[in-house]
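Entry 14. Ran structure prediction on the chain below.
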Amino acid sequence: MRCAQQALKDTGYDTRAIDGQMGPATEGALRNFQQAQGLPQSGNLDQQTLSALGVEGQGDATSGSTSSGAMCQGSASSAKSSCPAK
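Output, structure tokens:
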């Protein structure tokens, strides 16, 4: 979840805190990103949205549980991001 939040922020979508939690700001940012990408606007972090963000290795992307030390490399605007699975 943190990597997806970072990728959203890097592409100009404000999730507020990058805290690994699916709060209202993250859901709103996801919906806006999904709309801009022509994806279904679910507000959920599904595989299609992860791919569009360029994020890989999320494990259970919707749980918000990643290791606290997980670092994201790259962003949707550059190379694929890669976060360690939980």
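The chain has a mean pLDDT of 78. Will compare against last week's run tomorrow.
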